[in-house]
Design brief:
heterodimer, A: 335 residues, alpha/beta, Rossmann fold, 12 helices, B: 357 residues, 11 helices, 28% helix
């Protein structure tokens, strides 16, 4: 891959707001190529959203300790201050949030908010801004866009609000689009529409996207590569096909077996991963997944595994990759 | 038009193949709930939200009836009405042959037999009570002695996989989401109910934990001979859990039938579209076309005629004029679709040809 657009190295994020330190992200390395879609996949508390928000520096600085480096097209993101940071947000990288109702300001029309975003970054008149907003609304296929620009967020349906959110994120032609579970709050029939729209926009505009989701099905629909996160670390990363067809980390294997329990399985027990996600204030010294992993041995409990390269671009952080070639033994996935 | 017999059979009265089905445990007919809108001058309502608008169904003893639909389709309102947490505007609920809320079955007695588990595991527990106290509370209200109630609570905690020695004295905030939902299930079982209504009970859980809770629910069902009403927006989970599935759209039943038959050969275009929006999990066969355009319409002013006609590709003039009634689909087990295309007599161009008889 030639010169990645976004490079994250040894990123660690620790929250110090509460009684105990919470290590939400623990040494994440990621790179995103131009025009690439990377999906961060994980369950709640895996650090996927925290990683994403750190790219926009959205965490409270006084209560968050960020280590490592984030470089976007040559810019050292973690060193940005004041005006430079404001210019960066929205212009270089923009985010689509899970709940557009909370992300929009309820007292301004959607159109006003998009025009404001454009004028924040570019010297344009409000008439030009409105023209741009209208084009964006047409682009994200909002019916009767002229009228919708004057609507308040609460006057729109969930799917329409998410389209408006995408239009807002694209308003200043960002280099990187950060999507934080953008379809999770939507109904199934609407989710498909938004995924198709995002894919189409990505292709036409050549966008680079980091797409955070907990739903493997969604990741498969949009991503070129998938990074699976667990307890603040990337445990497996590779092309969609590698991760879905030949997963090698026991956690990925477990996650995949909990999906696709469609026809024919009724009556049998579901394969489940035993136990619950770890406490981020007291992570075990070794592999964070070891307490739930049927393959765990002494070495897993003592030392955190380094990344093992299994194929070009397919990396797994696990001591026992030799034992996962044929998937997990049957007993390992039933609780 | 439907014959009177067919209307009776809208999953209500005796099915045509009576040998197959166990006795009905919960019969719901003509259920209606309209919520008045606030606002307007003097706080007078400006119309109503037709949350549930004439819903009939039966839950048979020992089965799991799945209810699916998108937000605003009325599935949760239906659950709350069946549980009598809100009063229906109209309709009748019969439990084990007796009218609910009537002299023979007052609400207190009914609620001991029908219990509910909600989506938000934290909001449904009292934060000031230990989980043991929460589970034991219901039985004491129903006249069980304190010591017996606590013993029952501890046995149930053990049964749902939370060792009472470690967990009994904890407060809800000291548990994870999956553990709290286990507590809610234990609490629902504390009154030894016959029916459990599970309203999106696993939707807030992570996938890896969800599977554990679903397995637990299946085990408990066998062990205590329970009947489930399983409500979810997740089509895969519903398929896995249910014997029969009911699909709702804007306050009405679109289709109801045996799970596999409905998933393999759906007869209502909405069911087909809903199933078509399942993601493939195959990077080489990605979805290329959305099965439906637009969002579900607002239940405040639902479209006339068939409520789905505004989004249906096969809609004809007839569909915006006449409300389709439940039509029985050929086959052994009762399977009904409320669509003109399923009804030979409707006049829709894609309805099956009239039988020669």
């Amino acid at each position: 891959m030639s010169a990645p657009l976004l490079e994250i190295e040894r990123l660690s994020v620790t929250f110090s707001g509460g009684k105990k330190l919470v290590r939400a992200v623990d040494g994440v390395d990621l790179s995103l190529g131009r025009g690439e879609v990377l999906s961060l996949l994980g369950e709640s508390g895996s650090g996927k959203s925290v990683t994403l928000r750190t790219v926009l520096r959205l965490h409270n600085e006084r209560r968050t300790k960020v280590e490592g480096s984030i470089r976007l097209d040559g810019t050292d993101v973690l060193a940005l201050k004041g005006r430079a940071l404001t210019d960066f947000r929205g212009k270089e990288a923009a985010m689509i949030f899970q709940e557009p109702m909370l992300a929009f300001d309820p007292v301004y029309t959607v159109g006003q908010q998009i025009v404001e975003a454009i004028r924040q970054h570019e010297q344009v008149t409000s008439a030009e801004g409105r023209k741009r907003a209208l084009e964006l609304f047409e682009r994200v296929r909002i019916p009767s866009p002229e009228r919708r620009l004057d609507a308040y967020p609460h006057e729109m349906s969930g799917g329409m609000r998410q389209r408006a959110m995408i239009a807002l994120a694209l308003a200043c032609r960002p280099k990187v689009l950060l999507a934080d579970e953008p379809t999770t709050a939507l109904d199934a029939t609407v989710q498909v529409q938004i995924l198709l729209l995002l894919r189409e926009l990505q292709r036409e505009l050549g966008l680079s996207v980091i797409f955070v989701t907990h739903d493997i099905g969604v990741a498969v629909e949009v991503a070129d590569r998938i990074a699976v996160m667990y307890a603040g670390r990337i445990v497996e990363i590779g092309s969609v096909r590698d991760v879905i067809r030949t997963p090698r980390h026991p956690y990925t294997l477990g996650l995949l077996s909990t999906r696709g329990h469609g026809g024919g399985l009724s009556g049998d027990r579901l394969p489940a991963i035993p136990g619950s996600p770890p406490d981020l204030t007291a992570l075990p010294p070794g592999c964070a997944f070891a307490p739930r992993c049927q393959l765990a041995s002494d070495v897993c409990r003592q030392a955190a595994p380094e990344a093992v390269t299994l194929a070009p671009g397919h990396l797994v952080r696990c001591h026992r990759t030799a034992d996962t070639v044929k998937g997990l033994p049957k007993a390992a996935v039933t609780s | 038009m439907l014959s009177a017999e067919e209307i009776d059979n809208w999953n209500g009265g005796t099915p045509p193949a009576p040998a197959k089905l166990p006795p009905a445990l919960l019969e719901v007919s003509g259920l209606v709930k309209h919520f008045p809108l606030k606002g307007g001058l003097f706080g007078r309502g400006q119309g109503v939200v037709r949350a549930v608008d004439g819903v009939d169904f039966t839950v048979y003893t020992g089965e799991t009836l799945g209810i699916v639909g998108e937000s605003g389709c009325g599935k949760s309102t239906t659950a709350r009405l069946v549980m009598q947490l809100i009063r229906p505007d109209d309709g009748r609920i019969v439990f084990d042959g007796v009218d609910v809320g009537g002299p023979k079955l007052p609400l207190k007695g009914y609620r001991a037999q029908v219990q509910m588990v909600f989506q938000d595991s934290y909001a449904s527990l009292n934060p000031r009570m230990t989980i043991e106290e929460s589970i034991a509370f219901g039985p004491t209200v129903h006249g069980v002695s304190q010591s017996e109630a606590v013993a029952r609570a501890r046995a149930l905690l053990d049964r749902v996989g939370l060792a009472p020695q470690r967990f009994a004295g904890r407060y809800p905030h000291e548990l994870s989401g999956g553990q709290r939902q286990r507590v809610n299930i234990a609490r629902a079982l504390a009154l030894k109910p016959r029916v459990l209504i599970l309203d999106e009970a696993v939707s807030a859980l992570d996938k890896s934990v969800e599977a554990q809770v679903l397995n637990l629910l299946l085990d408990l069902k066998d062990e205590y001979g329970l009947t489930y009403v399983f409500i979810s927006h997740d089509l895969e989970v519903v398929r896995y859990m249910s014997d029969r599935v009911m699909v709702m759209y804007l306050g009405k039943v679109a289709e109801i039938g045996p799970t596999e038959q409905l998933y393999r050969a759906s007869r209502h275009p909405y069911t087909t579209a809903l199933l078509g929006s399942l993601l493939s999990m195959d990077p080489d066969r990605r979805t290329t076309e959305a099965p439906l355009a637009g969002d579900p319409p607002n239940p405040i002013n639902p479209p006339p005629g068939c409520r789905f006609h505004t989004r249906c590709r096969s809609a004809e003039a007839l569909c915006s004029e006449k409300v389709p009634g439940p039509t029985r689909i050929d086959g052994e087990a009762p399977h009904y679709a409320a669509c003109h295309m399923a009804d030979r007599t409707s006049g829709h161009s894609r309805a099956p040809a009239r039988s020669p008889v």
